[in-house]
Amino acid sequence: MTTPFFTAVQQQALLALGAALRARKYQFTIVTPATQARVLARPADPATASLRDIFGWNRPFTAAAIDADLLACMRAASIVEERDGLLRSAVRVSTLAGEWLFHSAYPTTQDDAVFFGPDTCRFVRAMEQTPLPTQAPLRRIVDIGSGSGVGAIALARRFPEAEVLAVDVNDRALALADINIRLAGVANASARHSNLLNQVDGVFDLIVANPPYLLDQSERAYRHGGGELGAGLSLQIVQAAIVRLARGGALWLYTGVAMRDGDDAFLRHATALLDEAGLRWTYEEIDPDVFGEELDTPAYAEAERIAAVWLVASREA
């Protein structure tokens, strides 16, 4: 896939780097930005940086601290930043569900940052634990706002006979998703540019999404949900799924909702749409309290908590 971010040479270098980290049994579990900041505030010696320091914690390091072959891959991929004699990786690598996944460096302040965090872990775990609503084989699956592509990769492994699309409006995300899909070796998945489902055709047997759901002052694409207390994009996904689900198909949606006086506005609006369309649904809170620091911002002055939720909706066969 040709992207504005990586040439063919850079793509091959990233694939070689990912394969090398996998061969070295590199492991890193992603944390929240707040935890990352706390860990990075601790003193560390760049001369003794480990692979987890370099690619997980995203610490500065010296050339002598890393294997020469890995550094050569990084330079060939143009992901080495240099300042005051120290080096730093322009991407991070996390491990999840048996995969090695490239995503954006810390901090994710760019408008087109490719975010990967504990929400990603909860999303993948929820998909792994959710049974299918039908016994019929799945033919087409789409992950809306796929980011790093990990959701699409997990589904491509679970359903090897299905065509799996990882769609996003963020070209940087599509570039990294393409690398991650190729690194995973799942031939039935591919990354496509699409705003929701507007640039892909046909109906889908399974639609999944882990969309942005916060009200972000800078309106960064990976974080800003818009609408009432950040629920705007999640409701758009529900609407798109109602139109594009095949018979017997299902929507799996992981999102966050801001509770105000015990009221879940997303639940009210989403289930009204689903009931009107005749879809069956279930809904549960996966985590009752996430991103608590957002309650200190003006946008959430009236919210009492933000919960991570899992919506499953299905159409009769």
Percent range of helical residues:
25-40%
The SS-based structural class is alpha/beta
Could you give the count of β-strands?
12
CATH classification, class level of the largest domain: Alpha Beta
- List segments where confidence is low: pLDDT < 50 over at least 5 consecutive residues: none
> Using only CA atoms, what is the Rg?
20 Å
Described by its quaternary structure, the protein is single chain
Number of helices: 9
Topology:
Layout: H1 8-23, H2 33-40, H3 51-56, H4 68-76, E1 80-83, E2 86-89, E3 91-96, E4 99-104, H5 118-129, E5 140-144, H6 150-158, E6 163-168, H7 171-184, E7 189-193, E8 204-209, H8 232-244, E9 245-260, E10 263-264, H9 265-277, E11 280-287, E12 305-314
Parallel strand pairs: 5-6, 5-8, 6-7, 8-9
Antiparallel strand pairs: 1-2, 3-4, 9-10, 9-12, 11-12
Helix pairs in contact: 1-4, 1-7, 5-6, 8-9
Observed structural traits:
317 residues, alpha/beta, Rossmann fold, 2 domains, 8-stranded mixed beta sheet, two-stranded antiparallel ribbon, 9 helices, 12 strands, 25% strand, globular
Task: Explain this structure.
The structure is a single chain. With 317 residues, the chain is α/β, with parallel strands linked by helices. The protein has two domains: 8-96, no CATH class; 118-314, Vaccinia Virus protein VP39 (Rossmann fold, 3-Layer(aba) Sandwich). The chain is 32% helix and 25% strand. It contains nine helices and twelve strands. The protein has helices at residues 8-23, 33-40, 51-56, 68-76, 118-129, 150-158, 171-184, 232-244, 265-277; strands at 80-83, 86-89, 91-96, 99-104, 140-144, 163-168, 189-193, 204-209, 245-260, 263-264, 280-287, 305-314. Strands 5, 6, 7, 8, 9, 10, 11 and 12 form an eight-stranded mixed β-sheet that branches. A two-stranded antiparallel sheet has the order 1-2. It has a two-stranded antiparallel ribbon with strand order 3-4. A hairpin with a 2-residue loop joins strand 1 (80-83) and strand 2 (86-89). The longest helix has 16 residues, at 8-23. The radius of gyration is 20 Å and the shape is globular. The relative contact order is 0.11.
